[in-house]
From TrEMBL:
Gene Ontology MF terms: aldehyde dehydrogenase (NAD+) activity
Top-rank taxon, per record: Bacteria
GO cellular component: cytoplasm
Entry-linked InterPro entries: Epimerase_deHydtase, NAD(P)-bd_dom_sf, NAD(P)-dependent_oxidoreduct
Coiled-coil parts of chain: none
TM helices/strands, residue ranges: none
Chain residue ranges for the region called Disordered: 113-137
NAD-dependent epimerase/dehydratase domain boundaries: 3-214
Protein name, as recorded: Nucleoside-diphosphate-sugar epimerase
Length: 293
């Protein structure tokens, strides 16, 4: 299958591209910069130059492909306005990609986050939130899944709070970055809230399986660790960086503070049973041992 991938050179995207190529697919990946283009070509992918905001380029990429995997998203979390801009850009991109695929029965795999449900681990049957700081992403992904009624084999892979590799990535990576900057390995609240996690190489396998066989309108959970206590994550980061560990104000995390403070374990039981997906790579707490002091 010839697959058009957005975000194909990031931590998750590079793993997805490698997984696709290793399993007989060819890849056309969107590249905004020369450095990204060179990285994609080195990995063995073809390159389509452009950004997530170039809607005509996105349509052209989808038109050339047998399937689409969308992974790109702006990562400026410095303010509510910057997050809103990233959400709006992604929403327009998903609409453009979806319009190009209507009536083709081609697979369209997009990315989402695992939802949180008070008192229990969320499952694939739970809806994604459509309000809050990133509620617009939930609305856009819901629109993608509704394309199942219009001749698109659309599906969503829901990622947990941390997708990691070699100690980098996700919410845990943000905790590490903030710890380096502030001199304290912090956590919001009492730190008992739980975050789910998955290794990027395991997540990549699930994206491929969803592309190849997931039914239209379905959602899946790329969750290996159902939920690690945030203070345990902060403790490992503190040990690796030689920094004190303590609670810090929720405001430390800007517009994502309310999400950082939430208890949000998540299950992938149905995903593993239905798609035969089995995470095999190191857990988050194990992988954080790779953080360099």
């Amino acid at each position: 299958m010839r697959v058009f991938v957005t975000g194909g050179t990031g931590l998750i995207g590079s793993a997805v591209v490698a997984e696709l190529l290793a399993n007989g697919h060819t890849v056309l990946t969107l590249a905004r910069s020369e450095a990204s283009a060179l990285a994609a070509e080195k990995a063995g992918a073809e390159v389509l130059r452009g950004s997530l905001g170039d809607l005509d380029t996105l349509r052209a990429g989808a038109a050339q492909a047998d399937g689409v995997i969308h992974l790109a998203f702006g990562h400026d979390f410095s303010s509510a306005e910057s997050v809103a801009r990233s959400v709006a850009e992604e929403s327009a991109a998903l609409a453009a990609l979806g319009d190009e695929l209507v009536g083709t029965d081609r697979p369209f795999v997009t990315v989402s986050g695992t939802p949180w449900v008070p008192g229990r681990a969320s499952t694939e049957a739970d809806p994604v939130p459509t309000d809050g700081p990133v509620g617009g992403r939930g609305r856009a992904v819901t629109g993608v899944l509704e394309l199942a009624a219009r001749g698109v084999r659309s599906t969503a892979v829901r990622l947990p709070r941390t997708v990691h590799n070699e100690g980098k990535g996700g919410f845990a990576g943000l905790l590490t970055d903030i710890a380096r900057r502030t001199g304290v390995s912090g956590y919001p609240g009492d730190g008992t809230q739980r975050w789910p996690a998955v290794h990027a190489l395991d997540a990549a396998v699930l994206f491929r399986l969803a592309l190849e066989s997931a039914p239209a309108g379905s959602a899946w959970h790329a969750v290996a660790d159902e939920g690690d206590a945030v203070r345990d994550i902060a403790a490992v980061i503190g040990r690796r960086l030689g920094l004190p560990v303590s609670a810090v104000p929720q405001e430390t995390y800007g517009p994502l503070g309310v999400i950082f403070a939430a208890d949000q374990p998540s299950s992938s039981t149905r995903t593993q049973e239905a798609l035969g997906w089995k995470p095999v790579h190191p857990s988050l707490l194990e992988d954080l041992q790779n953080i360099q002091p």
